[in-house]
Amino acid sequence: MATKNTKYIFVVGGVISGVGKGITSSSIGLILKNRGLTVTSIKIDPYINVDAGTMNPTEHGEVFVLNDGDETDQDMGNYERFLDLNLTRVNYMTTGRVYQAVIEKERNLEYEGKCVQVVPHIPLEVIERIKKAGVDAKADVVIIEIGGTVGEYENILFLEAARMMKNESPKDVIFIMVSYLPTPNTIGEMKSKPTQHAVRTLNGSGIQPDILIARADVPLDEKRKEKLSVFCNMPTDRVISAPDVSSVYDIPLNFEKENLSAKLCDLLGVVCQKPNEKEWNKWKTFAKNAHNGKDVVKIAMIGKYFETGDFILSDSYLSVIEALKYSSYGQHRKPVISWLNSVDYETDPKKLKELKNYDGIVVPGGFGKRGVEGNLKVVQYARENKIPYFGLCYGMQMMVIEYARNVLGLKDANTREVNPNAKNIVIDVMESQKENLINNRYGGSMRLGAYKAVLKDGTLARASYSKKEVLERHRHRYEVNPIYVEDLEKKGLVFSGKSPEGKLMEIAELPQSKHPFFLGTQYHPEFLARPLTPHPLFTAFIKACIGKSQ
Asked: What is the tens place of the pLDDT at every residue in 351-397?
């Protein structure tokens, strides 16, 4: 249902980082979409980086790639998955990107010789970008998540932009704060004071939240709701309890139990449709399947971006994890994913035998030399022992190197990324990327975004997709060296997906007569997996894993 004016919802965080603003924003978008509104989402990251492409996954989490090739924060993936839409570069904003645009405009005399200042020109650029995203999407509602927490210097200018938009159109802008209420073990009582301080800090920026999403280990009791209502200056019914859940896909359901979509429509001055029960029941069924899988499917994830100090950062592979979940839930299975470090197989090859305990193995994307030889040992073990294997980008490159070494007999086969002096470089830098490497251009310079792949008849890839041509998202600089393709194919490796002109190898596999599932993609299929539409290759992989376990 179209609104007279585009409406804007700003989502900000309080107390701690990682409080769940991204999932909250995604869930709000879903419940409003289910009310007949056209929704789009924006993520603002307050760092100087122009995009997320050059950031270490162990520090920042997964780099999510959009169809247009923009390298973004992982929350963009949450938006796409929950809302089932494809976002673009206009939906992602960083401090670096904003300043770069303002400086370019100043250099091009677009400010007509005026003195360009941090205020108002930076906030005005932010506002312009927010409004453009709404126009491009023809959105009734634009949801803007401001990264970080209130009180941080780096997001002050974005809060100022939000304040200016509210001042300009008071009826079209609302604010939601997502804040954390701790329950210290030694005290045994939920504490609201940190959230009170966070709201007052936001007030200091000239912003009053309209709704408070209260994150906590357990549901809020009425006493805490009343206290927050008094000290945060809002009606009690706008304090929304958001306790920890076993699945993030329960969150939209919990929000609707508190009638959040109706409250948002009222605050925005929008007459919404009744909830679409048919679509909502699909989500309910999906969320139920996330809990009800009696049988498990055991997946070994062999990665190199897990360790960060004494902690494990699974967020480095967030989209892969979610894609595995969607396909598993669709088969009424519960995925149990084990995080295994590829380096361990270099130092202790005996550990390879442990892989027999898993129904399937995934080697996701990655860069650099660390853990390569360990990954190659894993690939060989999976191939020789007929354990379902799924290689994603880097994981496909490992497949090809291993096959070249152990089947084709090229013992020194390698990737230029690891050993540029190897005699047989079966994975080489793409021709289009050579100049970038020579000139040390790394940010935003890879093969990025959606490209077509043509599938070969009679292959596992073709059967899985049930179509001849697919459009998938890429993020890589290296590819299968075409001079080795013919020899590899003669030895049984099938390149079942190629670029339309036939030069780039997009999918490699072994026939199912030789292996139940031994397949790799040069692209990242995980970026297009959605809760209600699991990716066909992940589903084929999970089915093969189930077959092994039976």
From this structure: 999 999 999 999 998 877 777 999 999 999 999 999 999 999 999 99
Tokens of 540: 């084929």
Q: Partners of 384 in the beta sheet?
A: none
Round to whole Å and give the CA distance between 192 and 181: 6
Question: Distance between CA 417 and CA 536 in Å, rounded?
Answer: 30
Query: Are 423 and 479 members of one domain?
Result: yes
Select from 189, 542, 112, 522 the least CA-distant residue to 361.
542
Name the more confident of 186 and 68. 68
252, 327: one domain: no
Q: Classify residue 2: in a domain, yes or no.
A: no
AA identity, residue 50 = V
Query: 243, 264, 284: which is the final residue of a domain?
Result: 284
Is the same domain home to 280 and 308?
no
Query: How would you classify the pairing of strands 478-480 and 518-521?
Result: unpaired
The label of the residue with tokens 């959606």 reads 450
As to burial, measured by CB atoms within 10 angstroms (0-12 exposed, 13-18 middle, 19+ buried), residue 363 is buried
Q: Is residue 395 part of a domain?
A: yes
Residue 182, CA atoms < 13 Å, CB-side half-sphere: 9
Q: Backbone dihedral region of 239: left (phi > 0), alpha (psi from -120 to 50 degrees) or beta?
A: beta
Residue 12's pLDDT is 97
pLDDT grade for 550, boundaries at 50, 70 and 90: low
Domain span at residue 175?
A: 7-284
Regarding whether 478 and 341 lie in a shared domain, the answer is yes
**Among the listed residues 86, 103, 107, the one whose alpha carbon sits nearest the alpha carbon of residue 95:** 103
**Which of 393, 472, 535, 545 is labelled catalytic?**
393
Could you tell me the pLDDT band of residue 467, with boundaries at 50, 70 and 90?
Answer: very high
Q: What is the CATH number of the domain that holds 216?
A: 3.40.50.300
CB 424 within 8 A of CB 412: yes
CA-nearest of 283, 173, 184, 193 to 533 is: 283
CA distance 36 to 361: 41
Whole-number Å distance between alpha carbons of 334 and 329: 6
- 393 is annotated as an active-site residue: yes
Cα(264)–Cα(211) distance, integer angstroms: 9
Closest CA to 453 of 499, 520, 503: 499
* Residue whose token pair is 């709000």: 28
Residue 519 lies in a domain: yes
Q: Which one from 60, 121, 515, 524 is the annotated catalytic residue?
A: 524
Cα(495)–Cα(287) distance, integer angstroms: 37
Question: Distance from CA of residue 362 to its chain's centroid?
Answer: 17
